[in-house]
Specification:
The chain has 262 residues and is an alpha/beta fold. It has a single domain, classed as Rossmann fold. 35% of the residues lie in helices and 18% in strands. Strands 1, 2, 3, 4, 5, 6, 7, 8 and 9 form a nine-stranded mixed sheet that branches. β3, α1 and β4 form a beta-alpha-beta unit. The radius of gyration is 17 Å and the shape is globular.
Length: 262
């Protein structure tokens, strides 16, 4: 499988399928493996590229160089290595910081942007307030996964509804190297609303109804700050609708992407 050498890091990625390029950027509780339900759906119509952020999954990183400010340049290097000039991006949680920064730096390379459960560096007052919950969740993510409790990135009642999928989420998250979250410094990567003036990239923000990290009203504010952005709430699920309700997530996102490629 391909690896891309970056300053202080080696980035792992893989591709599957044929068609217009589609990049999946995981969140802080994930890695390439969490997209198993989307790859098999979208690879029938797209060339799907998944990658591990530096310090996550199979991407290695020198201690202290895991900061989110490197994510966009890592993505650019991966796309260059894969020979992809332009792609649609689906970005979950932490991956939103990657996608929005990349889109601002190289808008000509982004066909469409889907932000799932993420403010993507747009810090409204309510987003800043939500970071208290993020700190507690990060501490839980770095501990050993409990077999009978939902990960903070899924709905609180998910274990009762779907214990096997809930257990799998915690196990996949536990595959990340220890300390992957320690140096992210997400709050250092900020998007000035003025930078979004003239924004023309087709954008959709997707949110789980019971997101315990960034509630729908918080993310509605973020969507309102992005010119022309659509906002969709997926019922029942929490912070990870792509994992908790893959059929509905793929339907909503798939319809949006299909509109961009007509």
């Amino acid at each position: 499988m391909p690896f891309v050498q970056q300053p202080h890091a080696t980035i792992y990625y893989e591709t599957c399928g044929d068609g217009p390029p589609l990049v999946l950027a995981h969140g802080a509780g994930g890695n390439t493996l969490v997209w198993w339900q989307q790859v098999v759906r979208f690879a029938n119509h797209y060339r799907v590229l998944t990658f591990d952020h530096r310090g996550f999954g199979r991407s290695r990183c020198e201690p202290g160089a895991e900061q989110a400010r490197h994510f966009a340049s890592d993505l650019a290097a991966v796309l260059d290595h894969a020979g992809i000039a332009r792609a649609a991006l689906i970005c979950q949680s932490m991956g939103g910081w990657t996608g929005l920064q990349f889109a601002l730096a190289e808008p000509h390379r982004v066909a469409a942007l889907v932000l799932s459960g993420t403010p993507a560096g747009i810090y409204t007052p309510n987003v800043l307030n939500a970071f208290g919950a993020i700190a507690a969740a990060a501490a839980q993510m770095q501990s050993a996964p409990a077999w009978d409790q939902p990960h903070p990135a899924v709905a609180a009642d998910m274990f009762a509804r779907d214990p096997a999928r809930c257990f799998l989420y915690g196990q996949l998250a536990a595959l990340n190297p220890p300390g992957a979250l320690a140096h992210l410094a997400l709050q250092e990567v900020r998007v000035d609303p003025a930078a979004l003036a003239g924004w023309t990239i087709p954008t959709m923000l997707v949110c789980g109804q019971h997101d315990r990290l960034f509630a729908p009203d918080v993310l509605a504010e973020v969507a309102a700050a992005i010119p022309g952005a659509r906002f969709e709430v997926i019922p029942v699920v929490g912070h990870s609708p792509y994992f908790e309700a893959p059929d509905e997530f793929s339907r909503v996102v798939g319809e949006f992407l299909a509109q961009q490629y007509r």
